[in-house]
Amino acid sequence: MPDNDIVELFAIEAIKSLKHRYIRAMITADWALFEDCLTTDVKTQYSDGAYTFSDRESVVKFLRSTHDPAGTSALGYWHVTMPEISLTGEDEADGTWAMYHFFLDRSHNRQLEMFAYYHDRYRRENGHWKICETGYTRVLEQQLDRNTVSGYEVLIP
User: Fold this and answer.
1) 140 touches 114 (CB < 8 A)
2) Tens-digit pLDDT profile for residues 32-67
3) What pTM does this model have?
4) Is residue 154 part of a domain?
5) Is the residue at 60 inside a domain?
6) Residue 103: inside a domain, yes or no?
7) Phi and psi at residue 142, in whole multiples of 5°?
8) First CA to last CA across the chain, in angstroms?
9) How many helices (H) and strands (E) does the chain have?
C-alpha cells in the first residue's frame, strides 16, 4: 500500500473519532469537548435548516439551552453510523453519516425519534480535524405522546 493511502486512512480514522466525540459530547452535555470539535467559524443547519448558525459560540449556546439535561427537561441520544468520508484536499474532507436520534421532553412526556443523514465538512487546523460545516436532512420522524400509552417509565441513573 503506498504511503499516501496510509496517510489518507489515518485522516479518515481521525475524522471518525472526531464525529464520535461530537456525538458523545452532545449526549453527555460536555460543552467544552463539544466546542473543541468545531472550528470557530462552523456553519450548521440542524432540522433541515430550521436552526442555522454561522459560529461556534451560537451553536454551543443553542444546544446548551435546548439539550442540556441539567437545565432543561430534555434527554437526547444520537447514534451515527455508516460513514462515507472523502478527502477533498490535504486538510479538508467531506462526510455523510446515517443518524438515529431519540429525544424525550420529560416535562410533557413526549418522545421524538428521527432517522436522518448528517452532511459534514471537516478542516484540519494545527494538526487536528474539526467540523467546519454540519447539518442533517430528515428521512423519517415519528412522535409519541407517552401520556396516552401506559407502561412507559423513564429511569435515569
Assistant:
1) yes
2) 999 999 999 999 998 888 899 999 999 999 999 888
3) 0.89
4) no
5) yes
6) yes
7) -135, 145
8) 47
9) 3, 6
Within-domain flag for 157: no
**CA–CA gap between residue 76 and residue 29 (Å, rounded):** 10
- Its domain, for residue 143, covers 3-148
Instruction: Round to whole Å and give the CA distance between 5 and 78.
Output: 31
We report the CATH number of the domain holding residue 86 as: 3.10.450.50
3-state secondary structure string, 13-43?
HHHHHHHHHHHHHHHHCCHHHHHHCEEEEEE
pLDDT digits (tens, 9 = 90+) for 21-37: 999 999 999 999 999 99
- The cell numbers describing 101, all together, are 436520534
| One-letter identity of residue 35 | E
User: What is the greatest pairwise CA distance in the chain?
Assistant: 60
CA 43 distance to own-chain centroid: 13
Cα-to-chain-centroid distance, residue 91: 21
CA distance 69 to 134: 23
Q: What's the total number of domains in the chain? A: 1
